[in-house]
Design a protein that fits this description.
The structure is a homodimer.
Chain A: E1 2-6, H1 11-20, E2 25-30, H2 33-50, E3 57-61, H3 62-67, E4 71-74, H4 81-86, E5 95-98, E6 103-105, E7 109-111, H5 119-126, E8 132-135, H6 142-146, E9 155-160, H7 163-175, E10 180-183, H8 190-194, H9 196-206, E11 214-216
Chain lengths: 217, 217
């Protein structure tokens, strides 16, 4: 299975690449292909040093990360979501994972969804009808993705309207470290998943914690 | 410290009474004072049988549960919140805890906040300026409150605008079983705490679980 990561050289994307490369064929997408190739080389070095099984990873453009992949992860901040999607095509029949959280830092972190109701619903609206969008990975902090020596012992709620796509996304989640996927319902209720992240950022801020995650129990 | 529980004979309220009575002076409020007295007698029996220290609990009206208490918990469903508060007075200078979650069961459970933004903000708007409102206990299921033989090993996010009131509420949370209070910021962001409950109900529903709770980690 080929996973393309749009924004694969960004804060969240780079750690995702490191975690996913030993498990799947990964295409690192970036606006700057040279940067993607650099992250690719770095990933190959890390995999070799860690003794992971040889990983298949290439550095490419964001468009290549879409075109060449079966599953595309949009590892980009909400503020760049629309402008990035407007430059990309070939999403037909693909599964797209949105880990995007529409939020703003005012006095506290606040959930500020678009008029569609959530970032995932906005993505579904912008992409072709044959694209199956799921939200997942919303609450895993960038630092945790990158900390390869730490287990990721978190719950991951997954929303989506297509049962087969959701099953595939949950399967990917369950293969990464100790992440545990939970079906959180259709995309229509993805706003409640996206609202977790500003909540967790507030919990971290007001309780002097770092990179707070969540477990359902 | 005297804690009054408005709706103390309801689904959530009854278990709260059982858990709080060995720790604090509790006034059970109900529209039906006889029912409150019956829950009171039941609580006294349970406390005696469990060998808890003698508990101080009385059955009364909802108004008494406000008038006689230092801290009032509104253990009522969102749909009865406004009509109940309209019948009650004497909230001046009290701390009020809202565990109320505005939600509806459509195809999935959905967070449907009032125009104020959250149930807690609506409560603050309806009550006198001297009343200090906090949201807390939003995600603890009624069955878990009642299951006295089970530890409550959950995280409890607490929102509020008054630092002293929030500290007192967090202190109460931390005295109950293994609950752990977390400062989740001002009341302005309480919607993200209230949205947790429909999310958890969806998680339970779509993953064949019961009474799902949450831990920050």
């Amino acid at each position: 299975m080929k996973i393309g990561i749009v924004g694969g050289t960004g804060d969240i994307g780079e750690g995702m690449v490191m975690r996913l490369s030993p498990l799947y064929d990964v295409i690192i997408g970036s606006r700057d292909t040279e940067k993607a190739k650099s992250v690719c080389n770095c990933t190959l070095d890390v995999c070799e040093k860690r003794g992971d099984k040889p990983c298949t990873v290439v550095g490419a453009s964001n468009q290549d990360a879409v075109t060449c992949a079966d599953i595309v992860i949009l590892a980009i901040p909400f503020k760049h979501l629309v402008s990035t999607l407007e430059t990309l095509e070939c999403f037909e029949n693909k599964i797209v994972i949105s880990p995007v959280n529409p939020m703003e830092k005012r006095n506290s972190f606040e959930f500020v969804p678009p008029s569609e109701g959530s970032a995932a619903l906005l993505v579904q609206k912008m992409l072709p009808k044959s694209t199956r969008v799921c939200s997942a990975f919303n609450t895993i902090a960038a630092n945790k993705w990158r900390a390869l020596d730490e287990e990721l012992a978190y719950s991951v709620p997954v929303c989506g309207d297509d049962a087969d796509a959701k099953r595939q996304v949950m399967d990917i989640v369950n293969h990464i470290s100790k992440l545990q996927a939970f079906d959180a319902g259709p995309l229509a209720v993805s706003s409640m998943v996206e609202a977790l992240t500003p909540l967790l950022l507030n919990i971290a801020r007001y309780n002097k914690m770092r990179d707070v995650g969540i477990q359902f129990c």
